[in-house]
Amino acid sequence: xxxxxxxxxxxxxxxxxxxxxxxxxxxxxxxxxxxxxxxxxxxxxxxxxxxxxxxxxxxxxxxxxxxxxxxxxxxxxxxxxxxxxxxxxxxxxxxxxxxxxxxxxxxxxxxxxxxxxxxxxxxxxxxxxxxxxxxxxxxxxxxxxxxxxxxxxxxxxxxxxxxxxxxxxxxxxxxxxxxxxxxxxxxxxxxxxxxxxxxxxxxxxxxxxxxxxxxxxxxxxxxxxxxxxxxxxxxxxxxxxxxxxxxxxxxxxxx
Length: 255
Prior knowledge:
Layout: E1 29-30, E2 32-37, E3 43-48, E4 51-54, E5 57-63, H1 67-75, E6 77-82, H2 88-95, E7 97-98, H3 105-108, E8 113-114, H4 118-122, E9 126-127, E10 136-137, E11 142-153, E12 165-177, E13 199-201, E14 204-206, H5 246-253
Parallel strand pairs: 7-8
Antiparallel strand pairs: 1-13, 2-3, 2-6, 4-5, 5-12, 6-11, 9-10, 11-12, 13-14
């Protein structure tokens, strides 16, 4: 039951604000390990933290010169592997590596080095995918096989920077989850209490901590009501043929 606590809205009387100019605006998002296929058919693996999901589609922010981006644009396929909050050592092992043989000057200045076998470097194991070529990461609790839908050249309003960063839209074709993450008795619903993602805030990684901060009113909406934009997308054991109006989905995301 949702209860309103007025103290949640109390403003610290000593709070002040100042205009600043941060170099990055990573206020907090999922860490994703994206696996792609190199031109020689070997896998590439890289962490990223610019992503969001709507329905069974995903938007990524990618460096246009990275090997992951070049592979994705060429093959139009990837796997989005979501590490748990306990996989920090693997993320650190990949954090300053690149699959690009000729390391760009900008990355050299930040300490990047070329690594060919990213799976070995992170001590991770590949699993075969079913509908795309790049492998999944066994140790990650969630895998999403995906295909490229569209590419947007970002920063077109800044002279000399157009296309340096790409906004990439993906369609998720198949979702895999560790069995223990599912809500008991449900085939398709993931328990938010069991799923512990890794979050990047600026350049540090965090877990979600323990427990829910509040009882969410939105959590009372049956998840299947959001299937209006996802029926026929990701392949799995999901309910098929449900006629849920698109308006119901939009009502949920336009709040």
